[in-house]
Hints:
This protein is an all-alpha fold. Helices cover 61% and strands 0% of the residues.
Amino acid sequence: MSLGDITAFIQYSRQFTMPITQIASQMNMLQSGLASAERVFEFLDAPEEAAERTPADGTPARPGRPTWRGG
């Protein structure tokens, strides 16, 4: 076998596997897109959370921390 035969074999094998690799890559991207779309739609279908209640003076409540009302 000559160097040209080996080079031709490698080139033809790459040309043969290139479409297969491209299809596998496209299928991977499609699968990733479907998974992310599923997560987005799951998030959109989730019920809304209730708004936090604030005291009458308008300051936001901070649970677990004492408040000081200086005068």
